[in-house]
């Protein structure tokens, strides 16, 4: 269970990860793989031809309850530098062996065949999508309320990152695990404090490594809040600088603000009521 608990407005706020945003090359092939192999649903699309890009949202259920993936396709751009910082997304399944076979049948690549982790009992596999993003497949005994299990990011100072995600963002530290043999430490953080109930951040610290090349593939994560102004004020009071002060998005009026974590990963807070209006529209 969590060893930390949010305080102040964060303790009463209805925060959750709304979606993770990343850029893809072959949009049609990626959407097809996510639907046919992973079992995701196509939730909505937004084409902006005047700016030569398209957004597609996919997930394991409606966006008012589930975390989604926001795929950004820039016209005529097929390749991206994925960098070293972003690690993987993860999907939880009661049978990763069948899931891995289905991924192969639907044209995906399995980069690590299903099997137990070294020195442990958990069974995992890894797949690669058409753009090259890694997907961890995690075996669980029971179905997860949120199958989109993780967004994994590599960080240079784990203690500083944990302090940011808990004290500044209001998340709970669910668990932390050291691997002395392979010299890395993992930390799992979420708003509910239960990995099977939500999408969590998995932060990976490789001992002795303090920085990573970001690339231009993974873009940001969006977090819902009941009040962008109170959230922004509390974050600034915690000593953190905003990258964008609270504002309304042109054309749709959704209230947001943005900041970066200690490693430079972008996080955007989105007004919950405005977000629901977007879904209705």
Automatic annotation (TrEMBL):
Q: What is its EC number?
A: 4.4.1.5
Query: For this protein, what does the record note about how its cofactor is bound?
Result: Binds 1 zinc ion per subunit. In the homodimer, two zinc ions are bound between subunits.
Pathways involved: Secondary metabolite metabolism; methylglyoxal degradation; (R)-lactate from methylglyoxal: step 1/2
- Which cofactors does this gene product need? Zn(2+)
Q: Does the keyword Zinc apply?
A: yes
**Every VOC domain range:** 16-140, 147-272
Q: Which GO terms describe its cellular component?
A: cytoplasm
Name a GO molecular-function annotation: lactoylglutathione lyase activity
Q: Transmembrane residues, as ranges?
A: none
Please list the GO biological process terms of this entry. methylglyoxal catabolic process to D-lactate via S-lactoyl-glutathione
Matching NCBIfam families: glyox_I (TIGR00068)
Q: What is this protein called?
A: lactoylglutathione lyase
Q: What is the lineage of its organism?
A: Eukaryota, Viridiplantae, Chlorophyta, core chlorophytes, Trebouxiophyceae
